[in-house]
């Protein structure tokens, strides 16, 4: 069974987050995140709570490796927390990305 440190690293990688980004979010230095991911440093209850918010999952799921959510689920939850203006801006960017991808496919 994977350890908490393995699950933290797996979640970080699944979400394409750098150790530096996670360290800044957690108010730690990057070396501390490395130590946590290597299992050389234990995680406090407060840190577990922050990791669970960052990764969009319950602390229990993070501790026990259950119900690890996909990035799309985390995106949807975060998207709903934005105001309408920010949501519209993101939707416009997504539409632009789709158009650019289609144009690239046609030109290939």
Write the layout of secondary structure elements.
Layout: H1 4-14, H2 19-26, H3 30-37, H4 45-55, H5 59-64, H6 71-80, H7 84-107
CATH superfamily of the largest domain: lambda repressor-like DNA-binding domains
| Low-confidence blocks of residues | none
Overall geometry? elongated
**Number of beta strands:** 0
The number of domains is 2
Characterise the protein shown here:
With 108 residues, this protein is mainly alpha-helical. The protein is 72% helix and 0% strand. The protein contains seven helices and no strands. It has helices spanning 4-14, 19-26, 30-37, 45-55, 59-64, 71-80, 84-107. Helix 2 crosses helix 3 (30-37). The longest helix has 24 residues, at 84-107. The mean pLDDT is 87.
Give a brief rundown of this model.
With 108 residues, this protein is mainly α. It contains 7 helices and no strands.
Question: What attributes does this structure have?
Answer:
108 residues; elongated; 7 helices; 72% helix; 434 Repressor (Amino-terminal Domain); mainly alpha; 2 domains
């Amino acid at each position: 069974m994977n350890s908490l440190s393995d699950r933290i690293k797996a979640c970080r990688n699944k979400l394409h987050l750098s150790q530096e980004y996670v360290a800044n979010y957690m108010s730690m230095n990057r070396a501390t995140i490395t130590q946590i991911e290597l299992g050389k440093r234990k995680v406090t209850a407060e840190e577990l709570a922050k990791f669970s918010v960052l990764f969009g999952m319950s602390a229990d799921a993070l501790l026990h490796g259950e119900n690890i959510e996909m990035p799309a689920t985390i995106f949807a939850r975060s998207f709903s927390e934005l105001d309408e203006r920010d949501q519209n801006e993101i939707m416009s960017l997504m539409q632009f990305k789709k158009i650019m991808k289609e144009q690239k496919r046609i030109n290939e």
